Write the structure tokens for this entry.
Amino acid sequence: MAKKKVIRRSWAEPFKIKVVEPIRMTTREYREKAMKKAGYNTFLLKSEDVYIDLLTDSGTNAMSDYQWAGMMIGDEAYAGSKNFYYLWDNVKKYYGMPYFVPTHQGRAAEHLISKILIKPGDYIPGNMYFTTTKLHQELAGGTFVDVIIDEAHDPANAHPFKGNVDLNKLENLIKKVGAKKIPYVSMAGPVNMAGGQPFSMANLKAVRELTKKHGIKLWFDATRACENAYFIKEREKGYKKKTIAAILKEMCSYFDGLWVSAKKDLMVNIGGFIATRSKKVFEAARNLVVVYEGLHTYGGLAGRDMEAMARGIEEMVLYDNIKARVGQVEYAGRRLTEFGVPFVQPVGGHAIFLDAKAFLPHIPQNEFPAQTLAAEIYIDSGVRSMERGVVSAGRDPKTGDHHYPKLELVRLTLPRRVYTQAHIDVTVESIASVYEERKKIKGLKMVYEPKYLRFFQARFERL
């Protein structure tokens, strides 16, 4: 009797396409000129000159028909919009936080929390820095301290939870500066700058115990919390049968408060918020939001935006959605592995992070290998990515020297529900093509540098 052939079953995105947005291909000669005009900074390219845009997943996701329908019932009253109360109800239901203040996006929430909680001379430990978070902490007079595990700084290390906090590093900092000098510990999940790496629930519980012991608050950058919940479900013992919503609720239960850029998990074009258990912090944030953003019942947002956010919360916890989202990134990782391209292991939740040091070992870090690689990928195919290395790390305010992070990465971020497998194939094949020609690539020199968050607007020239 013949052996039964096992048929491989394909996977497909859990949606169908109803509206399309045309994109255009350009010639290599055109892209060479566009890249030079943009100062070899992908942020300064015109979007119409980009073929496949993997710069960020912030506000670039595709909203569902359910969200678009909600946009039509926006209550644009200046005060007391019904959409605000619907959004607040969903924040309480899914994040488990009783108090809520909307903002126009995530960095506005970071700004308010930094002003409220940080005093000059304070130290804020966290599981690796994020650019805007760190800057707001510094502008408030604080000093960020990285307490992530060492494995997070090694692109080749396959630790399943590289976003974990090193408890010894955290305890040593507490002993060194004193608990009163630490207004809160900041945890992000997954950790963007480490390659989209999650923390485990076990580590979170241990951090909560340590901070509780010393009377220190614990705050959560919950911008991509559902991705972190997904990795806990897939990788951590005891969570396989739990829903994303249940894991998210448990994660949030260990924090005193959180901030969110709604432009990621919630799949909207604009929006953010603060949520907390502290009535004192809530009242301070509600007071300051009026100064910087708008009335506390709209926080710089239209009513329709808040409605889309509320509905996005309901959709972000659906397992099929998050599995498809991470599945696209995993597919890209498998294909890059076929070509031998070096990237951060294991694959992160929202992006592929190319290891620019390993990709371009002949280019020293002071010639910006990640910035160079991002420019070369665009020139090859029109695919836009972004640098996450020495340019993003900025300068030491005391010495004026560049910060030289161990990770020199190029991030290719997949917006949710936007691109197909064919777009990923085009991207991977472009990267593989650049990898074949890597020895011919030369570095860059910086010719313009803004004071803050220089990676957004810095300009470069080829060496």
User: Anything to note?
Assistant: DSSP finds 16 helices and 14 strands in the chain. The radius of gyration is 22 Å.
